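Support request from a user on the community tier.

User writes: "When I paste my structure tokens into the form, the page sometimes reloads and wipes my input. The last time it worked, I copied everything first. Here is what I submitted, just in case something in the input itself triggers the reload:"
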């Protein structure tokens, strides 16, 4: 994550069945361990900066039960970190589902396994069905979700940085004689990301995160969004790198890309799963602006509602350059079938980004 590339790339959601494409096509992503391992090694060799999983506990139903089969992100992350050399791998943790003392030690352990390549995505909650399964209340107040998340993260940070045992008497946790070793690798706090879009979520990121991931609806509003996040972070005396998230259909011609896009995300979409995802997101999260729900049903089918990059290698490299110029430090990418489609992206798009001065390709 800390290399010199001005525009960083991460691959998102390969631990989840279907990845980010809510489709019934036969080549849709099978999130087996073998597929994840092969993909991680391929991404590592290509110089991709990071892999980001989705922590999901219940799928979205429909014909495919989209994301219903998914590898748990902390154990998945450990396995990938042990099997790769340079790439950063994030784990995604719901603050309510992992006790902070256990979490602090698991995260430190992964940082040691990888000699400092571990990253943490903090999720303060939105998916009510998952919280019901745990019989944990998901507050309908964002203030409370993020206040809890702040206390959870403060405890973890204190364990990571304090050499002396401490007692904790907070609003949500009472803990006695707390200590934890080892500290993270080289005593350095791992990169923290958050992806809240609400006011409270973005304040949380401004106070605590190195990276804030936001949904990009269009480039003009995106550029405004980046500016306002940077201003928020500056008020806390901090800098936060702003990333977005996109899906890729890259083919030699524009019409081939558009035809495949139409096929998997319209003709073969898993519409009941699309509607279930959109309903749940609309009820409890603020990731997407209200107008996105009426305009972007197809964008949800194609890539979970994130930004489309559909076209030739030239088109995709140019569009990434526009994202970069709007102020983003990087984007996540996804494919219908990551293993089948990433090699073409690697061979055709990465050299174009290098030619634009946005990234360099590692010498292997
Ligand atoms: C890039 C990205 C990754 C996310 N990863 C997860 C995840 O793994 N699990 C999850 O439950 N929510 C995930 N979310 C949802 C957010 O963490 C957040 O909970 C959601 O945006 C609702 O918060 P808000 O209402 O404050 O915006 C992700 C969102 C984005 C944009």
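"...and here is what came back when it finally went through:"
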């Amino acid at each position: 994550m800390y290399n010199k590339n001005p525009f960083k790339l991460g691959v998102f959601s390969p631990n989840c069945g279907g990845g980010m494409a809510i489709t019934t096509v036969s080549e849709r992503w099978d999130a087996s361990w073998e597929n994840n391992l092969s993909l991680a090694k391929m991404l590592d060799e290509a110089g991709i900066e990071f892999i980001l999983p989705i922590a999901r506990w219940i799928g979205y139903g429909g014909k495919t039960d989209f994301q219903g089969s998914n590898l748990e992100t902390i154990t998945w992350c450990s396995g990938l970190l042990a099997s790769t050399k340079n790439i950063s791998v994030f784990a995604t943790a719901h603050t309510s589902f992992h006790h902070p003392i256990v979490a602090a030690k698991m995260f430190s352990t992964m940082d040691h396994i990888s000699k400092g390549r571990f990253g943490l995505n903090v999720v303060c909650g939105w998916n009510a069905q998952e919280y019901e399964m745990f019989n944990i209340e998901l507050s309908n107040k964002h203030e409370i979700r993020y206040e809890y998340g702040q206390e959870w993260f403060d405890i973890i940070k204190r364990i990571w940085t304090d050499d002396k045992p401490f007692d904790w008497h907070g609003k949500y946790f009472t803990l006695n004689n707390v200590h934890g070793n080892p500290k993270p690798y080289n005593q350095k706090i791992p990169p923290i990301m958050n992806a809240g879009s609400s006011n409270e979520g973005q304040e949380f990121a401004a106070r605590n995160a190195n990276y804030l991931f936001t949904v990009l609806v269009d480039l003009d509003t995106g550029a405004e969004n980046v500016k306002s996040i940077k201003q928020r972070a500056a008020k806390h005396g901090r800098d936060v790198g702003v990333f977005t998230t996109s899906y890729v259909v890259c083919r030699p011609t524009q019409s081939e890309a558009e035809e495949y896009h139409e096929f998997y995300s319209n003709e073969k979409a898993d519409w009941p799963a699309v509607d279930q995802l959109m309903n749940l997101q609309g009820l409890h999260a603020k990731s997407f602006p209200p107008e996105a729900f009426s305009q972007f049903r197809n964008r949800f089918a194609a890539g979970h509602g994130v930004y489309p990059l559909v076209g030739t290698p030239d088109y995709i490299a140019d569009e990434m350059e526009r994202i970069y110029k709007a102020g983003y430090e990087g984007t996540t990418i996804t494919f219908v079938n990551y293993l089948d489609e990433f090699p073409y992206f690697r061979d055709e798009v990465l050299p174009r980004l290098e030619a634009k001065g946005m990234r360099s390709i590692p010498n292997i």
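Agent notes: The reload is a front-end session timeout and is unrelated to the input. The mean pLDDT is 95. The chain has one domain: 8-355. Escalated to web team.
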